[in-house]
Amino acid sequence: MAEAYIVDAVRSPMGKYKGGLSSLHPADLGATVLRAMFGRIDVDPGAVDDVIWGCVGQIGAQAFNVGRNTWLSAGFPDTVPAVTIDRQCGSSQQAVHFAAQAIMAGSMDLVVAGGVEVMSLVALNSQGDVGPQLGMRYPFDGDLWNERFGDQEIHQFRGGNLIAERWGVTAREMNELGLRSHELAARAWDEGRFDREVVAIGECRTDEGIRRDSTMERLEKLKPFVEGGVLTAGMSSQLTDGSSALLIASEQAVRDHGLTPRARIHTMSVVGSDPVLILTGPIPATKKVLARAGMGVDDIDLYECNEAFASVVLAWVKDCGVPLEKVNVNGGAMALGHPLGASGARLMTTLLHELERTGGRYGLQTMCEGGGLSNATIIERV
Q1: What pTM does this model have?
Q2: Of the listed 55, 305, 320, 368, which one is catalytic?
Q3: 3-class SS at 46?
């Protein structure tokens, strides 16, 4: 089977909700990241076979194939097609999978994979929440859905709380992970670990959500989101604006364009999981991708598991036996933020650069996704 290589990977800073990126049109934000990426590599954008772009809130400014609008806004050739996909929080990780699969199948040679989400502009759950107001039904109230699952609440907060209860994850453990996320992200910036992967956007030059003054005492004073639950804002990912992009290439494209591959897509998996718990998918996805690769947990040098909620990461660590010291070593979404459609590519970008910095060989990325889904990807530095 043909190999699929990561040639470059870049991201914007992660902008706080209503922060430094909030006034940007999503297509402009993504276009700025794409321009920066093609400014770093000597390849004609017109040689790209396809653009696969993740976005969850496909409404308003993010509607009408925002991936295509992003490419055109960058000033790149209109002969290059683009598509926008929605696998919830894993949308841009799935974009990388689709890109790699097209190249491995021999049908494409150069593919851009990435995503964008401006959550300050297009609110979380916007499509579902506005539906009833516009005379449309809610996503989880179909007759056959109710026949199977009843009328129970389907919500990420409930799922995160249920996971904490089922896996015996304590509030103390989750607050400790939240504090760790901010401390590691601050250290990463201080040590210049993000310098190569982040492209400044106007005055926004660093990730805005990092709280350097966070303490366990402050975290423990935060009130849970829902009565009877344990999840608080300190244990949760932040609403964020951001964009990320990767260029995936075949061996032929590497030769033809004189490119330098930085990693290869080693193994991929995608799974479905309980849609009521919603967020447990990283557990079976990780086990599946390791089995497909013929690897064990200890063969992986670095892990990125999206910090949607602290309970998700800690349940995954406990169930899969992953060493926490290898996980999200430059912080995660609790500090850096979670711009839904861009997060998969953001994690992949960070994973690639950290493997290069440390000299590690294998990295594994996974994330929970709405609807009870999860992708997992193993990359090998070359």
Answers
A1: 0.96
A2: 368
A3: helix
